Amino acid sequence: MDFSETTGFKDSPRQKITSLQTNGGKLFEDDGPDGITIPKEQDGSFWSSGLDYGCSTSSAIDEVLSQEDFTLEDLFEHEDIIQECKYLNNDLVEYLCRREIIAKLVSYVIQKPPDSQEEATLDPREKEKIKYHYISSELFQCEVPEMLDALFENPKLLELLFSFLDQPAPMDPSLCAYFCKVVIVLINKKHAQLVNFIQQTNQLEKILNHIGLYSIMELLIRVGWDDGNHDAQQFDNEEEIDSDWLHKANLVSRVVARMDPFYDNQPEVHVNAACALIDIVVKSSSVTPAISLLVDDLHSEPVLKDIFKYMFSGSGSSRTNTLSIVIVLVQSDTERRLSTTIRNESDRELLAGENPFDRSEKKVSSQLSPILKYSLEALPKLLEYLHNPTGLDGISLLTQSGRLNPPFGACRLKIVELVLALIRSEVQEIKEALVKHKVLLGVLEMFFNYSWNNMLHGLVETIIHTILDDIENVNSILKKNMFCEGEILKKICLAFISNEKAIMEPKGCRLGHMGHILRICTAISSCTNEESLLQMGIPKEEIQNWKALGEGQLSMDINQQQEVLGEKDHEDPGIDDGTLQAIGLKSNSEPPFDASFEDDFETDFETNFSFDDVRPSNEPFLEDTSNTGELDNNNDDGEFFDWDNPGEDSTVKFQDVLFDPSGQDATFGTNDENPFDPDEDAHSSLAFSDEKGNQQGFS
């Protein structure tokens, strides 16, 4: 019989039992079903028998709470306090909601726990108290509404919590964990009230003072424009928050001020400030007007002036991180202009009775925005740094492929990324400026000089593809600049010669950028021919060398990539038969399998073939045999069972399968000494270094 039917209670089992036990020693009198009456007196009843029967509800926490004199620390000594709080033990929650207890919990959250050296000198009793900091933060993590309400009822308690940020920067990151956990709970449950408190007490400046800590930077994002609650409930409280409060608080200018060289001794400040600003741009959309205001602030001329001022202030860290901001702003500006142009043209065509979906792709507006103006003005200085990185003077980096003197560095990589963003802006004045300052020539020079920087190669390859894909302008200004002044065909031919020399050296291997060069050659061959190259003014000798390369080493390399691997054609979407024919090469792929023959074979097989025709009547099927010892292929001598020839000498060595005796690698389809392709991915960990030449690994 159900417990609620017997007792008349509809509470949880724990509350039912507790009510029966604590009702002045008596049970509630109630008529149950079928005329069963629960006795009023407890004498002789099940509950007064003194036996447990597995239904005892008295916990260690209840025993402490029942005492007349106890402390919060007494409760901390019991491991189940967090569990009891999470499941809303009424007496415990009532105690924890007292003002003095909340203040004590907050104090433990913001107090600095002893470090490892200090902990070693503590006696066992003091070491036990270290867990109080963790337990206090976890009690807030239970998200008990009454506790959170008690925290907001008195502003002094919140001020006590945020007094943690009064410590001078830089602060030990390990100290922020408990504080941030509590604030995240407040953001999730009391976002509007928390924002109002931060506004009224100027806590934003405290947060910005510690933006060098990644956890504090994330806290700023959660409080400001992305609280992480993306469900429909989040909009219930949106009306309570002033959506313009960060704009009114001048947040963007205050974060940009953290790019000042003053923080060179704290490079994390530059990095996290840039990350916060980039996050604003990335998460902006038409449905988030509050963030759009912050993006407008970033695109304003006063803010851009400060950004470019810090870029050329002489600080390597400021230069690199401001470049990251500028790249995202250029991309955002292009997207804005593109969407605005398409929308305006669609409106005009609809008014004129035209179908906007039948028109060809339109170019974006060519009017220069502030971010593009500042970027063009900065090009000469950036190109000078690309050729002469002053921040890397005297720095060399020893790698497995040789010594880099100087290493390429993160800042120069950002400059190349900015060039890509400017080319994609599709503004004619930008293209003319790139040609005027010979930007493409410098980028190509870096590509061929640093043969093991995979990130650089990927960016430059994308730049080349973007220029070649400009179908509307067959002989665009950038394309002519790349082929004529940039001499890209000549540089590619020289790269193949250098690659052959590198392979011939002792323990030599293919240069790291050759994989990218093969794809670039494929793209060039598919969109150019001898006539178009002559029209661009490329010397005939250079064209003849390019043609000879296409018929020689390039043909061999591409055909090698087209070799059949594992009895299946290797499909490369970037190198198809049409491309091979365009450069005078032959496809190495086999004719496709005749599907009709396969269908006929399957039909004949199903109709005419039977296992009974080949299996002796006295030989059981494999499923019928109980001895499966011959199925064990886990032999220690590296052998496996040959199912086609199940004789005594039917074992085949793995070496016989994987490697041909002639040296031809049947698995990889190459007869090189090193069957693995030592291309960009294999050596990418050698390619990238930070501003001071410290090696950065990438897998």
In short:
By secondary structure, the protein is mainly alpha-helical.
Percentage of residues in DSSP E strands: under 5%
Largest β-sheet summary: 2 strands, antiparallel
Beginning-to-end CA distance, first to last residue: 63 Å
Number of strands: 6
Number of helices: 36
List the uncertain runs: 1-56, 231-239, 356-365, 586-699
| Rg over CA atoms | 37 Å
Strand ordering within the main sheet = 1-2
Q: Please bin the fraction of helical residues.
A: 40-55%
Average pLDDT score: 74
Characterize the overall form: elongated
- What structural class do helix, strand and pairing data support? mainly alpha
Would you kindly provide a written description of the structure presented here, covering whatever features stand out?
The protein has 699 residues and is mostly helical. Among the domains are: 242-365, no CATH class; 453-582. β5 (688-689) and β6 (695-696) form a beta hairpin. α7 packs parallel to α12, α23 (410-423) packs parallel to α26 (454-468) and α26 packs parallel to α29 (514-527). The longest helix is centred in the middle third of the chain and has 36 residues, at 316-351. It is elongated, with a radius of gyration of 37 Å. The two termini are 63 Å apart.
Short descriptors:
single chain, 699 residues, disordered N terminus, two-stranded antiparallel sheet, 36 helices, 6 strands, mainly alpha
Task: Spell out the blueprint of helices and strands.
Blueprint: H1 3-7, H2 13-21, H3 60-65, H4 72-76, H5 81-86, H6 90-96, H7 99-110, H8 116-120, H9 124-128, H10 131-141, H11 145-153, H12 155-162, H13 176-201, H14 203-209, H15 214-224, H16 245-248, H17 251-256, H18 267-282, H19 289-299, H20 301-311, H21 316-351, H22 370-387, E1 397-399, E2 402-404, H23 410-423, H24 428-436, H25 439-449, H26 454-468, H27 477-485, H28 488-504, H29 514-527, H30 530-535, H31 540-551, H32 553-561, H33 577-582, H34 595-608, H35 611-614, E3 639-640, E4 652-653, H36 654-658, E5 688-689, E6 695-696
Antiparallel strand pairs: 1-2, 3-4, 5-6
